[in-house]
Every structure is written in structure tokens, then in C-alpha cells.
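[09:14] KT: can someone run the structure on this one? pasting the chain below
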Amino acid sequence: MPSEKELNVNLLDKLDLLERLEMADNEGGYEKIKQQLAFEKKCIERKLYQNPPLTETN
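[09:31] RB: done, C-alpha cells below
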């Protein structure tokens, strides 16, 4: 079960995403939102598929 801090971070990330989409709507409507959605998808995929950092375990 995620901690409260982890839940808050996830919710803040979602709030950031919504705010960026609202800004895209204000700047250019539907086409701008489509571009922003494509960008956000790439960002999410990059996070999802990144390799974990290599750390030494002793």
C-alpha cells in the first residue's frame, strides 16, 4: 500500500498534467491539446520504461 506521501505525489503529478492541458486549450484549442497529449504520452512512457538506476547493494 502506498504511503500518503506517494499518493500526494501522484495526485500532484495528475494536477500538473491537467493544468498543462488547460493551458494548451487556452493557447490553441483542439489542435494544441492533441499536441500536448502526444507530448505527455511520451513523457509517461519514458518514465514507465526507464531502467532503474544502478546502485550497489552491500
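[09:33] KT: thanks! The chain has a mean pLDDT of 85.
[09:34] RB: yep, looked fine to me
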